[in-house]
Amino acid sequence: MAAMDLFGRRWALRILWELRAGPLGARAMLAHCEGMSSSVLYQRLRELTASGIIAPSAEGYELTRLGAALSHALRPLDEWAITWAQAQEQNDQNPADA
Prior knowledge:
By secondary structure, this protein is mostly helical. The protein has five helices and two strands, in the order ααααββα. It has a two-stranded antiparallel ribbon.
């Protein structure tokens, strides 16, 4: 499976994002990802596990070394998203300037 196909699947990147700080169980993941169904969560967990990006742990699921490296690769996207959100907030506060 190509990486972009995997990461483009709904909720896949969000799951990886939630695991960046450490292991999480499935119930905690569902609580963090409001609106995600349990069937989608378990499907994504199977796919991400099969790809070697996450692994089951005593606490639930965690990033593998490969998954942690991906986390570093996504950091610039996170930084851009913060800048974008701030710009959106400014546009909402000053609609005439947009």
